[in-house]
Amino acid sequence: MSNLAPKRLFSTRPILAFSLIVLLKSFLTWMVVFGGPNWTTLLKEVPFALIVFCFIEWFATKRKLVYYLSANLLMTAILFAVLMYYKYYGVIVTYVALNQVNQVTAVSNSVFSLMDPYYLLVFIDIVVMAYYLIRRKKGQYWKTASQKRISRRVLATLFGISLALCLFNIVPNRASMNEIVKAEQMGILNYEAYTIFSNKNQELVASSDITQAKIDELKQIDKPASPKLYNAASGKNLIIIQMESFQNFLIDLKIDGQEITPNMNKLAKENYYFNNFYQGVGQGNTSDAEFVVNTSFYIPPNGAATQVYPKKELPSLPRLMQEHGYDTATFHTNIVDFWNRGELYKALGFNRYYDKTFFGDEDSVFFAASDEVLYSKTAAELERMDQGDKPFYAQVISMTAHHPFTIPERKYKMELPDRYKDTFVGDYLRAQNYADYALGLFIDDLKQRGIWDNSVIVVYGDHLGLPIYSLDHDDKVLMQEIYGREYGSAEMINIPLVIAASGVTEPQVFTQLGGQVDILPTVANLLGFPLDKQIHFGQDILNNASSNLLPQRYYLPTGSFVSSKELFLSGSGYEDGTHLPLPGASAVSLDSQDEFNRALELLKLSDSYVSQLPTWK
């Protein structure tokens, strides 16, 4: 009889059974995201569930169990999405990411590669319940038993206590800047609800108050009267090559004496190479990099730039080039609808784009034609453009070295040491080795067609490839071997920049801080295009080497920034933030409150300026 009592209790009181289920799933999610649950998890996650369940008990007269199952499924989906999203981005997913749903099928390999089998434990109760309900006799008993009503007074008391606990967790922690910290302080389910109901429009700075002088002052830019290399590449074509997931540690990397990226190594040795260069992307990853590089604006606070600013008439590099008589085009082997690129390219003002309809399905890898096809067909088209009466600007977006980096065997160009085989890091190195091989073919092709010597070539990584959140123990050991130290946040967002221009550049390593936002003003200086009438948030890193400030978003918590000495990761605010020295820096500045404030102000100015731009017609 005593053994049956708990079973009957959970059968007749589903509010207890489902609350326990939510708690167990919350424990699993906290273990992955926050490093483990604690007793406060009970007080942060269960009260939210109890509020939902109290509504079911209060209003559901029939099909009560169906409502419980639906609520459980919804909360399970939220927690599972949090697990998967954190595994790659290192952030807590919110409803804003629903805009990405149509991208998921295109990158399904990436999604499945992130899944540890034990994540599926969050669904096991649903499978068990479904089986139980199929067993008609037992299912009917459960349905009937669950209809037993709870005293309205008890429900009201339980609802009141739960609501008070939710508010106690949410209200004091609203000001926290670090999204991970905020979700831990509030509880994941509370945080998800908070992001929906607290979604208010940011107070914008008037466009008339946003001037280049104000931006330069915040960045402490002291522009020289006679900038070095101004107009040095006048009249040359501009070719910007965006390398998929290419991180800086790949440059000069050898594994057991074998070069991973020999062509990029050669390019970096013979030209201008910036090794202290950082990404500025967010939810849109590759498309965000296209946005930042072509506008010198920061990414929006929520969502991909292509989805937040799709119809803005953006001051951009393509428009600047066209004002000076250039033809402009962009090349990407995927369909133009992916990440809403069709509207992005209109917003940026490209004369035309080349997508899957141009490159076809030949030699397909993942979801589009390979880099070899990209570069071969692009080179032929650039030769045609080069024979016209205008110089050109072309942006070329590589793709084959895309997460999860499991390229087909026909693309293998190296043999991995045994310790790297069947590892995430090993797959990444092999994919980047192939991407480098294809880039080498492109460079040779441009030289043979007579395009190379008459062009400025800019090559950079679009975003990180190895998120620290995605690495298992073996991967971390391999990254420790590669770096000779722990692989952390600063290393993760460090990407290379190489600028090559015959007759202009020479072998030189630049150690000053730079970011993707700086590419537009740097290129404009080389080509001799003044930016007096174009708002931009980057700086010419050939002439402003003493200091820089790079606000970060998304992959790092809001309020984080990279300065000349450190990577600062915000906590609830500045005071409990983390100071991480950049490679080569002897010490961090523990008094960087001013940089923190200026970084936030720069983000606000960028958001305000772009939000108030006119829409294109």
Give a nutshell description of this structure.
The chain is built from 24 helices and 17 strands. The protein has 617 residues and is of the alpha/beta class. The strands form four sheets. Strands 1, 4, 5, 6, 9, 10, 11, 12 and 13 form a nine-stranded mixed sheet that branches. A four-stranded antiparallel sheet has the order 14-15-16-17, with helices on one face.
What does this structure look like?
The protein has 617 residues and is of the alpha/beta class. The strands form four sheets. Strands 1, 4, 5, 6, 9, 10, 11, 12 and 13 form a nine-stranded mixed beta sheet that branches. A four-stranded antiparallel beta sheet has the order 14-15-16-17, covered by helices on one side. It has two domains: 4-197, no CATH class; 207-611, Alkaline Phosphatase, subunit A, CATH 3.40.720. Strand 15 (561-563) and strand 16 (566-569) form a beta hairpin.
